[in-house]
């Protein structure tokens, strides 16, 4: 008979900081992972900090200027390589085409927090292209530069830039850090993952990133996170992972019944014998979001990860051991790992 007599339960007793580093694109340009970051802490003050390159504060930064071929840019903040740069307002000059043809200039912030204008290739006529690096199209910008907007001109003669020649649509001409939005999964989906890159911790953007950087490359995404440090819950029993349950409801119609299935996520739980039930490490971590690691056999590899808010119900019996009945309230189901 299979039992969990030899099981082991661990809880997140500490954290190890990993500073900002570039994430890896899984290839679908939505899911991103970080080497070595299999699990990210969710504890308050230790959460993962995801910083895609892009503008953080400020919108419609580019405006007209009275001087020929010159644009103003407003003050703003932006991420590059995980660093938040603060750029003060100023102005700069675009490059005109060599003839009366279309040309696009991209206004950018470099990876050092400076403004740089990158000129596109002249078109053969006054037609613009939306293809990066094409004639009359927007230029590629360096890997960790951030695009603020574009200026489109069709004449070589010096003139003041008109507002109609400035383009700043987010996701097309302007690169914001929070577009597209993303979701974070701190423990991954384990052996139930749809792809290999979703087995461990990952982020997933709502839509694909655009290849606007040199070499048809995609926006870089940086992350700083904390790896949980695990300690044993020395006298634990009756662990229950967070799992979905399913129920059915039905609607009767003439000569039949139509069913509908709904799902709900249950709380995880375990019981542990404490010392004084006041200063125990587990007690001091109550009401925090913690990661738990459960081995059904401490001498074997398979384990379950659960991350959620630890709730405690303590009892102080006169003739028995001090105990806690713990609950783990999670936003996602526990994940199983064979290795």
Question: Which labels suit this protein?
Answer:
339 residues; mainly beta; 9-stranded antiparallel beta sheet; 4-stranded antiparallel beta sheet; 25 strands; 1% helix; 45% strand; elongated
What is the total tally of β strands? 25
Q: Main sheet?
A: 9 strands, antiparallel
Low-confidence stretches: none
Counting DSSP H or I runs of 4 or more residues, the number of helices is: 1
Structural shape: elongated
Describe the structure.
This protein is mainly β and 339 residues long. Among the domains are: 55-167, no CATH class; 232-337, no CATH class. The protein has one helix at 281-284; strands at residues 8-22, 24-25, 31-33, 49-52, 54-57, 62-64, 70-73, 76-80, 83-87, 90-93, 103-109, 115-119, 146-153, 166-167, 182-185, 202-205, 221-232, 236-240, 244-253, 256-265, 268-273, 289-295, 303-315, 323-329, 335-337. The strands form six sheets. Strands 1, 4, 17, 18, 21, 22, 23, 24 and 25 form a nine-stranded antiparallel β-sheet that branches.
Please provide a brief summary of the model.
The protein has 339 residues and is mainly β. The chain is built from one helix and 25 strands.
């Amino acid at each position: 008979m299979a039992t969990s007599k030899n099981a082991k339960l661990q809880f997140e007793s500490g954290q190890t900081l990993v500073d900002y580093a570039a994430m890896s694109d899984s290839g679908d340009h939505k899911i991103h992972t970080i080497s070595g970051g299999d699990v990210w802490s969710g504890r308050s003050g230790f959460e993962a900090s995801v910083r895609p390159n892009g503008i953080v504060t400020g919108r419609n930064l580019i405006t007209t200027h009275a001087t020929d071929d010159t644009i103003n840019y407003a003050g703003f903040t932006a991420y590059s390589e995980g660093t938040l740069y603060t750029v003060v307002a100023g102005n700069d000059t675009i490059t005109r085409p060599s003839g009366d043809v279309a040309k696009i200039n991209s206004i950018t912030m470099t990876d050092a927090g400076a403004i740089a204008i990158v000129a596109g290739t002249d078109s053969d006529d006054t037609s613009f292209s939306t293809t990066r690096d094409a004639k009359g199209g927007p230029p590629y910008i360096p890997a960790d530069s951030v695009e603020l907007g574009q200026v489109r001109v069709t004449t070589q003669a010096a003139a003041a830039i008109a507002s109609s020649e400035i383009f700043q649509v987010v996701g097309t001409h302007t690169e914001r850090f929070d577009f597209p939005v993303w979701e974070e999964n701190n423990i991954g989906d384990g052996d139930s993952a749809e792809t290999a890159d979703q087995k461990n911790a990952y982020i997933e953007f709502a839509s694909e990133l655009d290849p606007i950087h040199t070499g048809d490359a995609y926006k870089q995404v940086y992350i700083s996170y904390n790896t949980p440090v695990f300690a044993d819950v020395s006298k634990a029993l009756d662990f229950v992972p967070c799992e979905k349950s399913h129920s059915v409801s039905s609607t009767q119609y003439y000569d039949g019944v139509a069913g509908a299935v709904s799902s709900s996520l249950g709380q995880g739980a375990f019981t542990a014998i404490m010392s004084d039930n006041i200063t125990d490490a587990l007690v001091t971590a109550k009401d925090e979001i913690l990661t738990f690691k459960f081995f059904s056999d401490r001498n074997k590899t398979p384990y379950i990860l659960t991350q959620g808010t630890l709730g405690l119900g303590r009892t102080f019996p006169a003739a028995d051991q001090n105990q806690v009945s713990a609950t783990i309230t999670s936003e996602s189901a526990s994940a199983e790992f064979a290795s």
